[in-house]
């Protein structure tokens, strides 16, 4: 009996030693991270309430003036008025803007920019009321780009013709027309006239035979709309992108068919009831937004059957049913037709 007790005791001892070895092989106990202290509080005078300390963030300046000089130096000014004492003779690019709608840019500052900035290559003015653009008397042999947006600008000066190096002009303003001298900007390649109030298409544009990009968009709030286009587009043989939106067009002139380099044509937000014949056969067309037109099914279906190009065709918000859209897709099997399904 003693023999069995001794053997049993040795077995227990062996198990105890084995368990201790296993404990030693286990990793160290997890590190307990200290609980972060709650934010400090302050008590309002005269009350027993406590409030967290609030750290105020610096406010962004209402005016934005970014300057890049010809030597590569970059400047950021906090106020437009600082331009009065700034040397503009070596400015390469100048961008002015404001986060406050209706902020005015004084005519004196704008005249100083155009008089002294004869090394400028790019000028951008956004969300600043300038009402009238200053007379341009100084030479600007390097100024290739001007972008004017939301400035309440209704007219351009005749002296804009002095900007003979200009290649890009983008103006998102309620212009009522273009000066006849605009036709002298022979180096223009890109022209955007958005938010305009044109009642007739500016014929000065047809003198700009280097244009590859032409985009006009009427003021969607305005009552004045373009209803027709001159049949003179063969004078713009380099056009690759043509867009006329927010107008009252229902037909296109035959000369648009002569634009053999045309790749993108946007005639959304007009009054087309069918697809215009002038765009049936343009060989390089690949991107055609045609949304928000009051299409009539039978005339539109007949016009679709004559389309020869393939690419992306956008027909959103044109009043057709899903079944009709799908039928268009079947006819234009090599074209991707995009449409909404809300009229099914």
Automatic annotation (TrEMBL):
Region (Disordered): 23-42
Protein name, as recorded: Leucine-rich repeat domain-containing protein
Gene3D superfamilies for this protein: Ribonuclease Inhibitor
Coiled-coil region(s): none
SUPFAM superfamilies named in the record: L domain-like
Pfam families: LRR_8
Keywords in alphabetical order: Leucine-rich repeat, Repeat, Signal
Secretion signal span: 1-19
Gene Ontology CC terms: cytoplasm
Keyword Mitochondrion found: no
Sequence ranges of Pro residues compositional bias: 27-39
Domain of life: Bacteria
Entries under InterPro entries matching the protein: Leu-rich_rpt, Leu-rich_rpt_typical-subtyp, LRR_dom_sf, LRR_domain-containing
Record keyword Repeat present: yes
């Amino acid at each position: 009996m003693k023999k069995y007790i001794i053997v049993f005791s040795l077995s227990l001892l062996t198990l105890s030693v084995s368990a201790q070895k296993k404990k030693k092989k286990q990793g160290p106990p997890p590190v307990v991270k200290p609980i972060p202290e709650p934010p400090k509080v302050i008590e309002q005078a005269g009350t027993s309430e406590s409030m967290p300390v609030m750290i105020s963030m610096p406010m962004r300046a209402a005016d934005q003036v970014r300057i890049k000089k010809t030597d590569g130096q970059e400047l950021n000014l906090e106020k437009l008025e600082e331009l009065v004492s700034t040397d503009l003779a070596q400015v390469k690019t100048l961008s002015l803007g404001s986060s406050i709608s209706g902020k005015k840019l004084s005519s004196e500052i704008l005249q100083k920019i155009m008089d002294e900035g004869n090394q400028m290559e790019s000028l951008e003015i956004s969300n600043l009321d300038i009402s009238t653009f200053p007379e341009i008397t100084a030479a600007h042999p390097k100024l290739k780009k001007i972008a004017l947006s939301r400035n309440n600008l209704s007219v351009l000066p005749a002296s804009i013709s002095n900007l003979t190096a200009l290649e890009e002009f983008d103006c998102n303003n309620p212009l009522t027309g273009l000066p006849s001298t605009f036709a002298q900007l022979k180096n223009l390649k890109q022209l955007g006239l958005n938010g305009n109030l044109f009642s007739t298409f500016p014929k000065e544009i047809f003198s700009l035979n280097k244009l590859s990009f032409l985009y006009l968009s009427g003021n969607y709030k305005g009552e004045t709309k373009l209803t027709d286009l001159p049949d003179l587009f063969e004078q713009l043989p380099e056009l690759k992108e043509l867009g006329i939106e927010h107008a009252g067009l229902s037909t296109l002139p035959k000369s648009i068919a002569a634009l053999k380099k045309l790749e993108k044509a946007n005639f959304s937000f007009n009054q087309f009831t069918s697809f215009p014949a002038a765009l049936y056969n343009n060989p390089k067309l690949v991107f055609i937004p045609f949304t928000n037109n009051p299409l009539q099914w039978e005339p539109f279906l007949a016009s679709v059957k004559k389309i020869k190009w393939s690419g992306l065709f956008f027909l959103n918000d044109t009043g057709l049913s899903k079944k009709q859209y799908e039928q268009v897709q079947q006819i234009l099997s090599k074209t991707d037709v995009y449409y909404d399904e809300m009229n099914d």
